[in-house]
Write a structure and sequence with these properties.
Strand content: under 5%
Number of helices: 9
Distance between the termini: 63 Å
Main location: membrane
Radius of gyration: 18 Å
Family: Belongs to the UPF0126 family.
Order of helices and strands: HHHHHHHHH
Helix content: over 70%
Transmembrane segments: 63-81, 88-109, 115-136, 148-166, 172-191
InterPro entries: Gly_transporter
Protein name: Trimeric intracellular cation channel family protein
Number of strands: 0
Number of domains: 1
Largest sheet: none
Structural class: mainly alpha
């Protein structure tokens, strides 16, 4: 029950953050709603398609489409005050990351998938929606720009899966993985912890600068 409640909250939060991104790109209202739905539901949809898990999440639960659409439209109405709530949205995004990751792991585990697929399914569910949002907004995906994002998702998935394999109750491991993942993501946000970057400058470009 707790996971489902947080899942719905995360859907709304992801849709609202996407709506703000759409506003910065001057999209019309339809574009705002589409981007909100794609961001909130894209990870779960990609996971279901790759695993052959049908019906798709939002087909099985059409109410999720209503939640994400309503959240996107609500954002249009209150966008001016939302910039003041940037930190809150970052924290809600962290909640969404860990909740989506765990739900993705659960789906793969229910299908009897091996450990690697379970972890990848969790990462896809947690991260792909944000990648789709950034691509549609013509931005470099946050996932690939140094943010400690996919790593947190992977750690969350591993803790959840291996904890259950060790015999701990699902409820306990759900809470433990959520707390750990949320804490790591929050620390990364507060202290600006990033992944190492790969910077390659061809030799001929170095020579031309001299």
């Amino acid at each position: 029950m707790l996971l489902h409640t947080l899942f719905v909250i995360a859907l709304a939060a992801e849709s609202m953050s996407a709506a703000l991104a759409a506003g910065r790109r001057n999209m019309d209202w339809f574009g705002v709603c589409v981007l909100g739905c794609v961001t909130a539901l894209g990870g779960g949809t990609a996971r279901d398609l790759l695993l052959g898990h049908y019906p798709l999440l939002w087909v099985d639960q059409p109410a999720y489409l209503l939640v994400t659409t309503a959240a996107a439209l609500f954002t249009i109405a209150v966008a001016r005050i939302m910039e003041r709530l940037k930190l809150i949205f970052l924290l809600l995004d962290a909640v969404g990351l860990v909740v989506f990751t765990i739900s993705g792991c659960m789906v793969a585990m229910e299908m009897g998938q091996p450990v690697l697929i379970v972890i990848v399914a969790g990462i896809i569910t947690g991260c792909v929606g944000g990648v789709l949002r950034d691509v549609l907004c013509n931005d470099v995906p946050l996932l690939f720009s140094g943010e400690l994002y996919a790593t947190v998702s992977a750690i969350t998935a591993c803790v959840f899966f291996f904890g259950i394999q060790a015999g701990f109750p699902v409820e306990l491991m759900t809470i433990a993985a959520m707390v750990l993942g949320f804490t790591l993501r929050t620390l990364a946000i507060v202290f600006k912890i990033e992944m190492p970057r790969f910077v390659y400058v061809p030799v001929r470009d170095q020579s031309s600068k001299r």
